[in-house]
TrEMBL record:
The keyword Zinc does not apply. It comes from the Bacteria. Keywords: CBS domain. SUPFAM superfamilies: CBS-domain pair. It holds the Pfam family CBS. Residues 99-157 form the CBS domain. This is CBS domain-containing protein.
Amino acid sequence: MVKNSDRFIIAFNKIEKVLKTMVDKNDLGFSRLVKITSKYHPVLKRYRDDLLEFAQLRNAIVHNRVDFDYAIAEPHLSVVEQIEWIEREITKPQLVYPMFKRKVYVFQESDPLSSLLYIIKTKDLSKFPIYQGNQFIGVLSEKGLAHWLANQMSHDFKSLSYTTVGEVMVFQEPHTSGFIKKTATVYEAEDRFKSVIGKGKRIDALLITENGHANESLLGIITPRDIIDTAANSQ
């Protein structure tokens, strides 16, 4: 039976090997490698503190061995499973595709709003890419719809049947969506959402395409809720 300490060291060594290839240096210690790579690597940024603690545990295991077969510091199973999970996330991270692959309901500016509202009712969706011909205009969100609805309070709601999606898009805040390539990791997507928060902005949705370009077919869509749910399930 493989000991916890052996499983821990195996996972630790795999992570260290990957980190060295990232910086192309073999003379740096593990902690230094983590501090350097976590500045630009989303997965390592997420688990930076865990990895630094693992470095201390690794030293305790390696330097306190009584002999080759016996380690004084034997890690708890939960710690072993955690480092093995992180090792898999670093070497084989979850990608946004196919994780967030789904049918994306797309509308033209000229489409009647009633057709979009029908999808909201029947599919329980709230974010829709809007196009003018082949040109991407933006993503209409529930907030944009709410702003439009509030503006209609002094108007005749009978005109709803004549309202187009484009008329509602006027009330949608600009630049609240983006595109991401299908080979991006879930952590890269998470970073995209977080990157604008400090600037007082937000991203309502990331649209997945082959290379992250607006003129490509849509393969899926990612919302902030998707990222929150994914992070919660990975704990």
